[in-house]
Write a structure and sequence with these properties.
binds 1-deoxynojirimycin; seven-stranded parallel sheet; five-stranded antiparallel sheet
Length: 551
């Protein structure tokens, strides 16, 4: 029996509002994605993951969902989604959708009902409402801080407070409430019945909470170990929810899949990736790594071991809609890459670390290192998650004027964290035109002039482009794909990694600045033009497997 499709899939993340705009209103939409299915097929991805496309007031880029079983009218209709699912399937591409179960939008009918129904009502019990403290309950129940900055509590007209772990417009759901549990099962069935193949579960480690009084203070909370019994994070009982979901997924043929977005300690990742839980979990270690051989080797080794512990396959991510694009991270000196999560800021032409030294972005170097990293990632056992635009070698757009920014992290920091808009700017499809071919109208986030150099139309003609490299890599990966093992080979140099897959497919990444000599071997693909017998600095090459396969 062949392995389930998702174990070694290339999954391409589409951020729907910034992919392609079919009606010229400046916002990407479902018909826009539909019009680019050929592009996705030519790129050679196995699946597409759509970030939220549901009705939303866009307080958090769509992660504030007002209705989980509908499409934002600005993005299309359910019929459009059906057409997209059918077109992707006809092109042999699977579709994964984002489920956001920790919180709804404050526009969701449940939250509106909760506001109207008042304290003590069943409607309020679907969320986390508490009385305030201090005189007249005017102070929040605790001093907890939301992930986007500021208090995690907001007061409503009748004086009660509700918990929002993220933006004010994202009230947290109460997963102890049976309505909440039943409704998400309905949502999972709704999309599965429409043909969706899998789900990406937003902040999968935060759903269940123990809010028994007295609530701990922020300082007390920080001292509680996150070992499955923490009041707010990574609780063991969240897997009761996923066991129920697993039964839903497994009732379909083929079973629907899920991948957890769980920011948890490495040794707890396998809990989410177990077959009886969500089945796969993101590994974000490469988002935090420098372009450095030792760090890469440790991350790859550790994550393959973790995947083996859960029986799942590993996942690899270099960019997504929440982080500075990897071409840009790797275009800055190590301390400025935000490796510790420190926000990067742009002042004029200078990149600035909040409170740190200033650095000039090395555009070419960043793209070169990003190409090497991507080619390495695409040869690893497991699933590769790509983010729209990385195949174009796109950099972060650093200089979005403040008045155009949308991300709540920018507004709540306030202004200190530049937020995540810079990786969410609509894609350039053509080198000219009103919004570089994104649509007939404008673009909801401003596109810089240098996008012309990264336009699909320009890159498609250039065999040396990053787009050509990704297309070739994805096609070759299909041919070369093999068992989920990896064997390290001693490269004789600390700044060079070399590994072999079970069929003999070999990969060499030279992280250093000196060329690396190769024996007489056939190079199938290289991330920079490589003379025979040499892996140039900051380059990955794929070497032909044993003669049986190669020849
Ligand atoms: C994680 C998502 O990736 C991010 O974009 C969002 O802001 C938060 N979850 C809250 O939903």
């Amino acid at each position: 029996m062949s392995a389930p499709w998702w174990r070694q899939a290339v999954v391409y993340q589409v951020y729907p509002r910034s992919f392609a705009d079919s009606d010229g209103d400046g916002l990407g939409d479902i018909r826009g994605i539909l019009s680019r299915v050929d592009y996705l097929a030519e790129l050679g991805v196995d699946a597409v993951w759509l970030s939220p496309f549901y009705p939303s007031a866009l307080a958090d880029g769509g992660y504030d969902v007002a209705d989980y079983r509908d499409v934002d009218p600005r993005l299309g209709t359910l019929d459009d989604m059906d057409a997209l699912i059918a077109a992707l399937h006809a092109a042999g591409i699977r579709i994964v959708v984002d489920i956001v179960p920790n919180h709804t939008s404050d526009q969701h009918e449940w939250f509106q009902e909760a506001l109207a129904a008042g304290r003590g009502s069943a409607a309020r019990d679907r969320y986390i409402f508490r009385e305030g403290t201090g005189e007249g309950g005017a102070e929040p129940p605790t001093d907890w801080v939301s992930m986007f900055g500021g208090s995690a509590w907001e007061r409503v007209a009748d004086g009660q407070w509700y918990l929002h772990s993220f933006a004010v417009e994202q009230p947290d759901l109460n997963w102890g409430d049976p309505d909440v549990r039943a409704d998400f099962v309905r949502t999972l069935r709704f999309w599965s019945d429409r043909g969706v193949d899998g789900f990406r579960i937003d902040v999968a480690h935060m759903l269940t909470k123990d809010l028994t009084e007295p609530l701990p203070s922020r300082d007390e909370l920080a001292l509680i170990p996150v070992d499955g019994r923490h009041p707010l994070l990574d609780r063991d009982d969240v897997h009761d929810v996923y066991a129920e979901w697993r039964a839903v997924f497994d009732a379909y043929d083929p079973p629907r899949t899920a991948v957890a977005e769980a920011w948890v300690a490495s040794d707890r990742v396998p809990l989410y990736a177990r077959p009886e839980s969500l089945g796969q979990s993101f590994n974000f270690d490469l988002l935090l790594a420098d372009f450095d051989a030792a760090q890469y080797r440790r991350i790859v080794t550790d994550n393959l071991a973790l995947a083996a512990r859960s029986g799942s396959s590993s996942t690899w991510v270099l960019s997504n809609h929440d982080v500075v694009r990897h071409a840009t991270r790797y275009g800055l000196p190590a301390p400025a890459r935000g490796a510790d999560g420190t926000p990067l800021r742009k002042h004029g032409t200078e990149w600035v670390l909040a409170g740190g030294p200033e650095h000039e972005l090395d555009r070419e170097g960043g793209e070169r290192r990003a190409r090497a990293a991507s080619l390495l990632l695409l040869a690893l056992p497991g699933s590769a998650y790509l983010y729209q635009g990385e195949e174009l070698g796109l950099h972060e757009v650093a200089d979005i004027p403040d008045e155009h920014r949308q991300d709540p992290t920018f507004f709540r920091s306030p202004g200190v964290d530049r937020g995540r808009d810079g990786c969410r700017v609509p894609l350039p499809w053509t080198a000219s035109g009103p919004s570089f071919g994104f649509g007939e109208g404008g673009s909801h986030l401003p596109q810089p002039a240098w996008f012309a150099r990264h336009a699909v139309s320009a890159l498609a003609e250039d065999p040396a482009s990053t787009l050509a490299l990704y297309r070739r890599a994805l096609a070759l990966r299909r041919e070369l794909q093999t068992g989920e093992q990896l064997e390290w080979i001693d490269a004789g140099r600390a700044d060079v990694l070399r590994f072999r897959r079970p069929n003999g497919w070999e990969v060499v990444t030279n992280f250093g600045t000196e060329p690396y000599e190769l024996d007489e071997v056939e190079v199938l693909l290289a991330s920079t033009p490589s003379p025979v017998g040499v892996v140039p600095p900051e380059t990955t090459v794929w070497l032909a497997p044993a003669p049986t396969l190669a020849g």
